[in-house]
Amino acid sequence: MKKGMISSVILLIFMVGLSVADEWFTVKWVDDGDTIVLENNEKIRYIGINTPEIAHPDKSAEHYGPEAAKFNKKLVLSKKVRLEFENEKQDQYGRTLAYIFLEDGTMVNEKLVEQGYAHVLTGKSKGKYDSLLLKKQQAAMDAGKGMWKDWKETAGSYIGNSRSKRFHTQDCASGQQTGLKNRTAFSSLWNAFYEGFAPCKKCMPAERH
Ligand SMILES: [Zn+2]
Questions:
Q1: Which of 39, 81, 93, 151 falls 20 to 30 Å from 26 in CA-CA distance?
Q2: What's the pLDDT score for residue 7?
Q3: Looking at the domain that runs over 153-209, which CATH code has it been given?
Q4: 82 catalytic, yes or no?
Q5: Could you say which of 67, 86, 95, 166 is catalytic?
Q6: Distance between CA atoms of 176 and 174, rounded to whole angstroms?
Q7: Which CATH class is domain 21-151?
Q8: pLDDT (tens digit per residue) in 9-54
Q9: What is the residue extent of each domain of the chain?
Q10: CB neighbours of residue 108 within 10 Å
């Protein structure tokens, strides 16, 4: 009787362990710096960050796009990964939004930002790693890593929206609609990036997602 109870307890512990155990997937394809496909054909878009675009039939690659894709491939292709999510589970293209972790505990999203291959891209709601990712980005910018190396830009003037964490050109309609309360002025792209703002897709199409 006692023995039976002990085995029941052991079985219960085992079952609870299984239900909370992480699920691991093998990465079978790397699209670019921030998009991958798992063995079950699920397409994953890394959440919280954005990497420059690789070349497309109608458009040439952005600065550091191919490098970001190559770095991501080296990190995750054919590797086992685990996923973490936010409330916003999918983007408008049906891709799963996730933080990707390697078996050694490395968060791939963080690694890309840390090495200057990605900038932060805040989601619709606040993400659990937002401040960590921004800290890593600022360190990468200060150290001139990756895309931040030899940064060149002409002086400009941009409208930041502290709610959406996006910044716009002066003539962008979305930018102009920003309420005074949420409005921040930036005198350079660098400053906007440094504060954790990402370029608007409409007025700065060079930064597509
Ligand atoms: Zn805009």
A1: 93
A2: 77
A3: 3.40.10
A4: no
A5: 95
A6: 5
A7: mainly beta
A8: 777 777 666 556 789 999 999 999 999 999 999 999 999 999 998 8
A9: 21-151, 153-209
A10: 24
